[in-house]
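Re: your question from the hallway

Yes, I did run it. Sequences:
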Amino acid sequence: MTTFQPVLLEAVGVAGSHTLASYRSRGGYAPLERLLKEKQPTDVIELVKASGLRGRGGAGFPTGLKWTFLPKDHPGPIYLCINADESEPGTFNNRILMEDDPHQVIEGIILSAFATRATTAYLYLRYEYPQCWDRLQGAIDEAYAAGLLGKNIQGSGFSLDLYLHRGAAAYICGEETGLIESLEGKRAWPRIKPPFPAIEGLFRKPTVVNNIETMACVAQIARRGVDWFRSIGVPSDPNNPRDPGSYGPKLYCLSGHVERPGCYEAPLGITARQLIDGHGGGVWKGRKAKAVIPGGISMGLLTEAELDTPLDFAGPGKVGCLGLGTAAVVVIDETVSIVDFLHNSCRFFAHESCGQCTPCREGTAWSLRMLERIRAGKGRLKDLELLAEIGNTMGMMPGSTICGLADGAAWPIKNAIKKFRGEFEDYIKRTNPSGWMVTDPVPALPIVGAH
Amino acid sequence: MTTTQRILTPEMAARIEALAPRYPNRRALTLPALHIVNEELRYVPYEAVVEVAQLLGLAPAEVQDTLSFYQFFPQDKPSGETRAWVCRSVSCALRGGEEILDHICHAAGIEPYGTTADGALTVEPAECLGACDFAPCMLAGKTLHKNLTKESAETFVRDARARAGKSS
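Structure:
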């Protein structure tokens, strides 16, 4: 494995990296100034399309293509929303970009606003990132003072206002239409699509929602070019005309039971094992991995035997995971009970389900109650069938919910029951020796039905 | 009836109004306004919801609907002077986050979501704080506490109580 020189993270650890002076000294904003002077918005769209950049927020949708869904010759306003509601368990790459190199993000935002003809951009930042707030606000103030934001940027005739908007600790605001509703001052209930945000989004105007790391990638594509970007990662599969490939560098967040947790930049397609052993210093305490989350808890689980799976957009799906997600890799060592893991996952989703769609609201709540019962020594083998049923019926793919975050709640359940069924069965038989085989319905608790 | 004391001070209203030009309608000011009230009072009583609604030209129910969705703004009584969120999501839980939460609550003599009797500290479980590289972690006010141990957790509780009443 050749050593890869970090690009998106090149400023991490550099003193004063969050300042305009530092970013300028690294060549920052020069590409923006050149493009504003020489190019048209459509040229920037073509540049990003040609690069093959796919959104880094989790869904992996091609960024340039997303921009082309905006109506042509719209009288405006068109809005750009930057999704910094990073809340997927295990994920912190955007936090690092915003804290250590906010100007790289802002340059990407200005370029993307120019491309989409947006004149107002809102950066929706989760409440839990106060340091990011301060760094971003400082950087925005510097950018306004330097004529990089505001009216008639660098004499180009292009104007952009960029505002920070603070969330209030709700996971669902990371779903793009949930984010839009939240920005509008409402409960963050995702919208039924279509209409897609590109047609009718924020304040019912055409809107693009992009992730922070995607913005940083746009800045680097403008600086280093399409060929550079396409020289990194995994090319599209020639046998699959619908595969857009996995180009460019990616930030991988490594946490859990590794020796050196951290955010590491690598070409898309690095395997989980290379990441854990090469960057993370291996599973901690000399232990073995039992399971590894490939891209945030929503994506499900890789078994030890599946660790050579490449972490590109197509890789995790080939072994039954939901996808690459946020590329947050969480290592679970051999001493952890998979029952405890799934309980943690179900508790998260029961807490964070927005409550709009019944299958998700009830499915996440009941799966948590079942896991609590199993952990209390009252599990039955039949519970595994019920859990699997929840996993198979809750989500956009089975068609029962409005947003895809329900699929993310379902996937850990599905993967855990399928890939670790033996461990669940052993646990249930061991902890409930007299009742594990019972298949009668569990009587309702007396407190239920009080009203 | 005596004159009703207004909750929203002119300063708070001015801070909210200052943000108005950023948005094409006033409903979008809901979350920023609730944050401003919560920063000042450490809670958002229902009377403040009514006043925010008046300021924004909304029905109180619209503001209350948004507020209640997030489960973030306390309404019955103010949070402690320090509000701490201890992460219990997967990366922190794998490194002892739940034990740290128990330990902090025990050291403070409260249950999760509780506030100490002196009003110094509120402790709440949090879902992923996005600082998994420093697990187990906790956000207290604006400060991220990294790689918590039982010892550093106890020190945190002691410091929070010693600080109480001195900052304002």
